[in-house]
Amino acid sequence: MKFLILGAGPAGLTFANRLLEKGETDFLVLEKEEEAGGLCRSKIIDDKPLDIGGGHFIDTKNQKVLEFLFKYMPMDEWKLFTRNSKIYLHNQFINSPIESNIWQLPIDEQIIYLKSTAAAGCNNNQKMPEKFVDWIYWKLGNKIADEYMIPYNQKMFGENLNILGTYWLDKLPNVSFDETLRSCLEHCPYGSQPAHTQFYYPKRYGSGEVWKRLAYRISDKIIYNENVREIDVEHHVVNCRFHADYIINTIPWMEFENIEGINRKIKNIIEQLKYTSVTISYYQGEINTDAHWIYYPQKELDYHRILVRKNFCANSIGYWSETNTERLHTNDSQYHYINKYAYPLNTIGKKELMQELLDYFKQREVYGLGRWGEWEHYNSDVVVSKAMILSDSILNKK
Fold first, then answer.
1. 124: how many CB neighbours lie within 10 A of its CB?
2. Checking CA distances to 212, which of 11, 156, 263, 301 falls within 20 to 30 Å?
3. Cα separation of 105 and 245, whole Å?
4. Which among 48, 8, 5, 55 is positioned nearest to 342, based on CA atoms?
5. Please, are residues 87 and 76 in contact by the beta-carbon 8 Å criterion?
6. What is the pLDDT of residues 316-368, one digit of tens each?
7. Contact, 170 vs 128, CB < 8 A?
8. C-alpha angle 279/230/396, rounded to 5°?
9. Contact between residue 325 and residue 264 where contact means Cβ atoms under 8 Å apart
10. Which of 202, 168, 173, 154 is nearest to 85 (CA)?
11. CB-hemisphere CA count at 13 Å for 377?
12. 231 with 56: CB under 8 angstroms?
């Protein structure tokens, strides 16, 4: 075939459907699971959907992405939410991001936080550091770093945060000291807010429904239970039997047990890529909050985030937690699912290494795409945009 797409997650499904929209039918998708959706799949637990990859919501900022997805799942099947995320800190819930909501803490705590933030390196003309931990102290000060950002990120990404760089921090809110001070004085948040300030979630389904519909549209073009283990880059052959002019890879690069036709340097790059695994655990108990999700920096708790299902999934009960699988000591949940590949880690030097890897494969008409193909912590809406752009680019080149 012309196009062979590895993986039927959001990246692969978008790329394939975009081909079809443009009149290209000579393609095939290989998926190792028995259903499509990747990290964005949903299961029915207690008669309501549970998203097995954690919280995956559709942002509202990219209209082209929305127009594309609404063709498969119309807008009237979605509900628009204004993000309500909270942090559990000092035995109370405050809104996220913490820099904009210090004013919700007791006044004595506010003073300590403000003095610490004022002393941060970014407010005293110090050069921005290159390591993630140093950046946290430089940007936010000791108080926020020690009580929230350091422990939370250790729970999410692993104890050794010194392996992380700073090139990816445009994902985080940017709140200046002046804005932090103003929020305390005026009791309202200032500064840029986190991603998904508003988001769409299906009215009757989990987040996996839209990907099911994309898969259904190309159901005769997907082979399920096909575990991709081998790729011959020079001859464009996968698993010794699928041949294509173009190969689009959306799966983790280390999933290939054998890659023929590449040099040792590229193999070394693949071996250096790091990731974390996350366990999603469902509980039937109730949490008295209006938050959609809550962040927990406390080290004595295994999980780092809880999603309160009833607050975005109508008529449901319970909640689910996200836990770095290495931290999971006990699990008394009613249901759990382990995502081996949850978050690609933004290690120091990874950006340059991935650029070299992607350029190398691109020269051979093998393209990395999406969270795992590009090894970037993309949300699903970003993945859709990337897949549309790549599909259109290759078709226009032809």
1. 9
2. 156
3. 59
4. 55
5. no
6. 999 999 999 999 987 888 999 999 999 999 999 999 999 999 999 999 999 99
7. no
8. 90
9. no
10. 173
11. 20
12. no
The domains found in the chain, sorted by start residue, are 3-84+200-397 (3.50.50.60), 97-154+162-186 (no CATH)
Residue indicated by tokens 């079809």: 20
pLDDT tens per residue, range 3-35:
999 999 999 999 999 999 999 999 999 999 999
Q: Which of 294, 301, 309 is nearest to 328 (CA)?
A: 301
Q: Which residue has the tokens 């498969």?
A: 72
Residue type, 282: Y
Neighbours of 340 (CB within 10 A): 11
How many whole angstroms separate alpha carbon 115 and alpha carbon 159?
27
Does residue 214 contact residue 157 with C-beta atoms inside 8 Å? no
Q: Give the 3-state DSSP-derived string for the chain, with helices as H, strands as E and coil as C.
A: CCEEEECCCHHHHHHHHHHHHCCCCCEEEECCCCCCCHHHCEEEECCEEEECCCCCCEECCCHHHHHHHHCCCCHHHEEEEECCEEEEECCEEEECCHHHCHHHCCHHHHHHHHHHHHCCHHHCCCCCCCCHHHHHHHHHCHHHHHHHHHHHHHHHHCCCHHHECCCCHHHCCCCCHHHHHHHHHHCCCCCCCCCCCEEEEECCCCCCHHHHHHHHHCHHHEECCCCCCEEECCCCEECCCEECCEEEECCCHHHCCEEECCCHHHHHHHHHCCEEEEEEEEECCCCCCCCCEEECCCCCCCCCEEEEHHHCCCCCCCEEEEEEHHHCCCCCCCEEEEEEEEEECCECCHHHHHHHHHHHHHCCCEEECHHHHCCCCCCHHHHHHHHHHHHHHHHHHC
**How much is the average pLDDT of 264-281?**
96
Cα 233 from Cα 230, distance rounded (Å): 10
pTM for the predicted model, two decimal places: 0.94
Q: For residue 319, what are the CA distances in angstroms to 70, 232, 297?
A: 27, 44, 18
Which residue, 20, 26, 30, 27, is CA-closest to 68? Answer: 20
Q: What does residue 343 show for φ and ψ, rounded to 5 degrees?
A: -130, 125
Residue with tokens 């950046």: 135
